[in-house]
Design a protein that fits this description.
Length: 291
């Protein structure tokens, strides 16, 4: 029977009863902790998104808390903030699209510019949605004058990734992206251990990521900060599964009743009226009975 998943204890029970489930990388409590603790993964993401060739030793992970410039300004903490030479890169993981989230991400851009205006500034948004609805896997935005498209701030770019698009396209022979990066994007939303294990195969880096993901999925501090929306997703999935099962059982019971009534000689019109269903449905079950 359906049971609401509304606290840490019930989630642990859910996890025990569903061993294939794993908290996906798309939830920033998982994704940002892994990115912050695996420079090779950071290097993979940054070089593939920005089409660069930054070296591992040059990557410096910074404190994501940006300095305030005004007393009334709210404090902002980036998911992952990286400095590479004169480049500063903020990586944000965005689950579900909202106007509030867009404004928040743009506030990061403004704060980055205030803190690092002499740097080449990039914001990478890893999204589970297609922000511009044009079917691209990566969008690149700049702050420009509208009429002629003149660049107003040349040293600032925003990269929006649509991770779902990587599942739809075939990148087997891609020269633009590394194989591990493509696979990472494909599994970013996955809640299934079997699916992840099938995709990562012999990749040493992605195997490391998976092991970290598995460990974090079991940590108490993760469960304490576990996002409500995923609990609700699991809750809705259980409810949906139960409803589908109930519908199937009701359908099967109705079919048995119709067949019994037909065999007793009741007319199709009478059966349809008695069971409050369409006569076409009665005909379908009648055809099955005759077969």
């Amino acid at each position: 029977m359906y049971k609401a998943i509304n606290d840490k204890k019930s989630f642990k029970e859910y996890r025990e009863n569903n061993p294939d489930f794993i908290i996906p990388l798309m939830y920033d409590v998982i994704g940002r902790n892994i990115l912050k603790n695996n420079k090779k993964l950071l290097q993979l993401v940054i070089n593939n998104v920005l089409d660069t060739n930054f070296k591992l030793d040059d990557i410096i992970i910074k404190d994501g808390r940006l300095k305030k410039h005004y007393k009334k300004e709210k404090g902002r903490e980036c998911d992952v903030l990286v400095e590479i030479g004169m480049h500063v890169i903020n990586i944000e993981i965005n689950k579900r699209h909202t106007n509030t989230k867009d404004r928040k991400n743009m506030s990061y851009v403004g704060n980055l510019y205030n803190n690092y205006y002499d740097y080449e500034i990039c914001q990478i948004n890893i999204n589970d949605y297609d922000i511009f609805k044009e079917g691209e896997e990566i969008y690149i935005s700049m702050i420009k004058e509208i009429k002629k498209g003149l660049e107003r701030i040349e040293n600032l770019k925003i990269y929006d990734l649509n991770v779902g698009k990587f599942k739809e396209k075939c990148y087997t022979n891609s020269r633009r992206y590394d194989k591990d990066f493509i696979t990472l994007m494909k599994i970013f939303e996955s809640k299934s251990r079997k699916e992840i294990e099938k995709e990562i195969k012999d990749s040493i880096l992605l195997r490391e990521v998976y092991e970290m993901q598995d460990k974090l999925s079991r940590e108490d501090f993760v469960l304490e900060r576990f996002p409500d929306e995923l609990l609700h997703e699991l809750e809705k999935k259980e409810l949906k599964d139960d409803l589908e099962k109930a519908k199937e059982e009701t359908k099967k019971l109705k079919e048995e009743i119709i067949i019994k009534l037909l065999n007793k000689g009741m007319s199709k019109a009478e059966i349809a009226d008695l069971l409050d269903c369409n006569i076409d449905q009665v005909n379908i079950y009648n055809s099955k009975n005759e077969e």
